[in-house]
């Protein structure tokens, strides 16, 4: 898993908003992370906090560990609304494992 | 339900609300005016304001954090003369045609939502609209986080931003929908459709023309009257300074590729 190929994972929070995470995997680490979606973030200028939190994470990291890493990176006074660190971690997971069938609806 | 308490109504009534009626405006100028007016209300240079928007041409308004290519078919948009603009608040893309949408912004001091969660403040700022729609015979309600809906389908969605001590709350409701054009220009994601598929019966869009049979302007007039009766509202207009400041921001930022394609 060390191609520069861009990966993209998307997750729609039930009753919430959609988050998409794009990245490359280089030497087992997540790189060039871009977070997009129709969520809300206050203040809006804090968007880079989310991609920086994911940048450099191990591609083998568990969803829970990645969610904890993202949660820890969000400073006091920055609020994610309609999405969550867990939602971002699920989107990353889906980008890493696109072939896995989705859970039945 | 998110009806306002008497104390909340009093807090709104205590403000000296101004109305800017909608005149057809370039989409890019609307994007910039939203920021300029929010900042001016936050700094106390303008009284709290309800601004009804007019659109001079069709456009897609992207949310602050959306990727252009994931939301829009740019070739199809160009072919149909649909402009692509990006607003300052988060949330989802809106497909706007001048006579097809009803859009307004409220600029208010942030103390109006003191102690509320973001989710509560979304419902709070649209509760007068839900009441106005009910007076028109709809069984409208607020669907968290940011939707206005009824048994006839989803009617509209809101977004909020906070700027220099002000809350900007803007909402767009569908009046009439050109679904063939919208589906050519907007890419409706598979994830989103699957979510809507789960609750397709109550998530379908129900434009107000279909739900009320009223002219667009009659709905706007009713909403504005409801606001005026409940909270007080004085007619106002944009100042030449406000327009000049917004035009400068269109040149420097909102019209620039670095803003519109900020997330390609």
Descriptive account of the structure:
The complex is a heterodimer of chains A (105) and B (264). Chain A is an alpha+beta fold and 105 residues long. Chain A has helices spanning 47-54, 63-73, 85-96, and strands spanning 6-12, 18-26, 29-37, 40-42, 79-81. By secondary structure, chain B is an alpha/beta fold. Chain B contains 12 helices and 13 strands. In chain B, the strands form 3 sheets. Chain B has an 8-stranded mixed sheet with strand order 9-10-11-12-8-3-1-13, with helices on both faces. In chain B, strands 6-5-7 form a 3-stranded mixed sheet. Chain B has a two-stranded parallel ribbon with strand order 2-4. Chain B is globular. Chains A and B meet through strand 1, strand 3 and strand 4 of A and strand 11 and helix 7 of B.
Task: Write a brief structural summary.
With about 100 residues, chain A is α+β, with helices and mostly antiparallel strands. Chain A is built from 3 helices and 5 strands. In chain A, about 30% of the residues lie in helices and about 30% in strands.
Strand content of chain B: 15-25%
Unreliable stretches of chain B (pLDDT < 50, length at least 5) are 193-202
How can the largest sheet of chain B be summarized? 8 strands, mixed
Number of DSSP-assigned strands of chain B? 13
Largest interface: A-B, 25 and 29 residues
What is the general shape of chain B?
globular
Helix and strand succession of chain A?
EEEEHHEH
| Helix content range of chain A | 25-40%
- Helix and strand composition category of chain A: alpha+beta
Main sheet specs of chain A = 3 strands, antiparallel
| Low-pLDDT stretches of chain A | none
Count of DSSP E strands of chain A? Answer: 5
List the secondary-structure elements of chain B in sequence, H or E.
Answer: HEEHEEEHHEEEHEEEEHHHHHEHH
Oligomer: heterodimer
The Cα radius of gyration of chain B reads 18 Å
Estimate the global geometry of chain A from the Cα principal axes. Answer: globular
Helix content of chain B: 40-55%
Distance between the termini of chain B: 39 Å
Per DSSP, the total helix count of chain B is 12
Rg of chain A (CA only): 13 Å
């Amino acid at each position: 898993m060390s191609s520069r190929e861009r990966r993209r994972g998307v997750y729609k929070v039930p009753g919430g908003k959609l988050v998409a995470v794009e990245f490359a995997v280089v030497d087992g680490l997540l790189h060039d992370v871009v977070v997009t979606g129709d969520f809300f973030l206050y203040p809006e200028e804090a968007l880079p906090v989310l991609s920086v939190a994911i940048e450099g994470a191990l591609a083998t990291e568990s969803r829970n560990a990645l969610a904890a890493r993202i949660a820890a990176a969000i400073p006091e006074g920055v609020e994610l609304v309609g999405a969550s660190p867990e939602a971002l971690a699920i989107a990353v997971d889906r980008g890493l494992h696109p072939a896995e069938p989705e859970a039945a609806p | 339900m998110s009806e306002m308490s008497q104390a909340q109504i009093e807090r709104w009534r205590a403000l000296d609300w101004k109305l800017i009626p909608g005149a057809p405006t370039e989409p890019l100028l609307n994007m910039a005016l939203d920021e300029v007016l929010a900042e001016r209300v936050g700094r106390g240079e303008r009284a709290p304001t309800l601004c009804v928007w007019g659109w001079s041409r069709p456009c897609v308004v992207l949310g602050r954090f959306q990727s252009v290519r994931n939301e829009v078919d740019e070739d199809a948009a160009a072919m149909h003369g649909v402009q692509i603009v990006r607003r300052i608040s988060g949330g989802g893309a809106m497909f706007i045609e001048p006579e097809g949408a009803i859009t307004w912004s409220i600029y208010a001091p942030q103390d109006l939502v003191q102690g509320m969660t973001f989710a509560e403040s979304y419902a709070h700022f649209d509760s007068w609209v839900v009441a106005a729609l009910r007076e028109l015979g709809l069984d409208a309600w607020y669907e968290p986080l940011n939707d206005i809906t009824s048994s006839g389908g989803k009617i509209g969605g809101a977004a909020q931003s906070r700027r220099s001590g002000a809350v900007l709350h803007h909402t767009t409701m569908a009046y009439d929908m050109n679904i063939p054009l919208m589906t050519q220009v907007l890419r409706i994601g598979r994830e989103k459709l699957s979510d809507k598929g789960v609750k397709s019966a109550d998530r379908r869009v129900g434009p107000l023309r279909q739900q009320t049979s009223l002219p667009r302007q009659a709905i706007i007039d009713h909403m504005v009257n409801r606001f005026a009766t409940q909270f007080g509202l004085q007619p106002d207009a944009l100042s030449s300074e406000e327009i000049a400041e917004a035009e400068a921001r269109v040149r420097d930022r909102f019209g620039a590729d670095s803003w519109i394609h900020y997330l390609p």
